[in-house]
């Protein structure tokens, strides 16, 4: 067998600063707990290629129940869309789970020598792994030894045939690891060797590629690797007495492949709908993960999510016969034969004397194709609580954004609820939950400097900025739930008897006497309690129809920033009365579309909706 020649390459992409930022779940962009404006260590976990100002600082892990719906949201700088004339874009959504997936609590990059280091977390007082890790070391070690795919087009970057898979056209330095990520796997999709990542969806500007993506996903196609990791193909492996070993596919459905939502280039903003680009992910069952990937209790799993973003150019045949009849570029066009060269001069016209005039292009061949990436912090996938049947729908309602005004927060966003506009049916459950950090820079915001906090109170309508009286609220049928979501169980609702008393909420009179109330950890009116950065309101079943408006008293600051949401609860609609919404749609359609969605799913059994509506009570 000759050396592998890639048929379709994810990293054949155009880019300069084509960053991608994950907003829900919160993307780290390689941050952890640093308090500065920029990321301390861009090599901490993975090669994002993003601006160092991006990302959200660490907050306590979230928990998502199996088969619940999570609205994944992101912004991508250089555009996307099936109808975008300037760019060819693909987004790859994946997840992985393993007991050793963790965030760590330092910003240093993990190494072979430090991968097992454990220390007491100064935040929690618990003995934990010190360094963050997603991919396991064994996977990284094999990548580090394996010869890179020598059939790939690398333009004029001058990679050697003996370079390993840690070196690619885009990352031309194999001595610059990014956690335990394999650079070659990061830059190309579908990858040809085993990967620890499971596919969720591929969102593409050209759906002609979908059959290829689905066919070669590791969800459905097994992958090979040599027992002697330096060899990347069967002939060399067997010739050198190695075993060309087969890894079974994940045994999951092929990833959903859909046309992606339009967004313009040079802009980290919304789609045409006015809402952030999004994908409704059905959290997998624990049984889909495999017992080895669960925690010891068998009821939870440590997981991470990643999104990869590429923008392709048509200046050469990067996609071959999938998109056209052109032969795809490969290693035969490397070096001086490359159709693109570094910062070339191009002739553009002649003057009256017959002299050719040239223009110089800004073209970096290690970015002329480029892949960008963001990943979530570790989160838990958990077994459903007792009494919540598999056919009961759970929708996750979270908070996105970070402290600061619009300029300070950028390229992150200011606080908001997500899904911001939620359409569901009576009987559905909402999982109210959010996390934040206490190590933001001292940007604009309410309450103690550097802290993220959110809460929920009901309003009469979306243009109000006062909550309705507590006795009038109807969003929650149980008043104790409404009280918890407003006050976040701070200090277990203990009220201080004296100003000097600790571990309790100070009264207004005590705070007035302190002289610095907004910065006081015991100011529960401003939600300053240290443990309030993470709040899990649990599952709340929506029993009554209606339109409900709500806001956060901590962050809603009229004329400065708005943190409001709307929930529309309806009875189940007939199949002919519903329009199923698409990616990037206005808000999030839950069970108001369940009847129409179930009808669509029945006629499109391979679709995302077939997964979403599997087992739904219609």
Write structural notes for this entry.
The chain is of the alpha+beta class and 618 residues long. The protein has two domains: 20-313 and 369-375, no CATH class; 388-612, Cupredoxins -  blue copper proteins (Immunoglobulin-like). The chain is 11% helix and 23% strand. It has helices at residues 137-145, 183-187, 210-216, 234-239, 286-289, 406-409, 479-487, 508-514, 594-603, 608-612; strands at 20-24, 63-65, 69-76, 78-80, 88-97, 118-120, 127-129, 198-204, 223-226, 244-247, 256-259, 263-265, 277-282, 300-312, 345-350, 356-360, 371-375, 379-382, 394-400, 416-418, 421-425, 429-434, 457-459, 535-541, 546-551, 564-570, 588-589.
Q: What is the number of beta strands?
A: 27
What percentage of residues falls in helices of 4 or more residues?
10-25%
Distance between the termini: 53 Å
Biggest sheet: strands, sense, closure? 7 strands, mixed
- Count of discrete alpha- or pi-helical segments spanning 4 or more residues: 10
What percent of residues are in strands?
15-25%
- The assigned structural class equals alpha+beta
Organism: Arcella intermedia
Protein name: AMOP domain-containing protein
Biased composition (Polar residues): 26-47
Region (Disordered): 24-47
Break the fold down into its secondary structure elements and pairings.
Elements: E1 20-24, E2 63-65, E3 69-76, E4 78-80, E5 88-97, E6 118-120, E7 127-129, H1 137-145, H2 183-187, E8 198-204, H3 210-216, E9 223-226, H4 234-239, E10 244-247, E11 256-259, E12 263-265, E13 277-282, H5 286-289, E14 300-312, E15 345-350, E16 356-360, E17 371-375, E18 379-382, E19 394-400, H6 406-409, E20 416-418, E21 421-425, E22 429-434, E23 457-459, H7 479-487, H8 508-514, E24 535-541, E25 546-551, E26 564-570, E27 588-589, H9 594-603, H10 608-612
Organism: Arcella intermedia
Keywords: Signal
Protein name: AMOP domain-containing protein
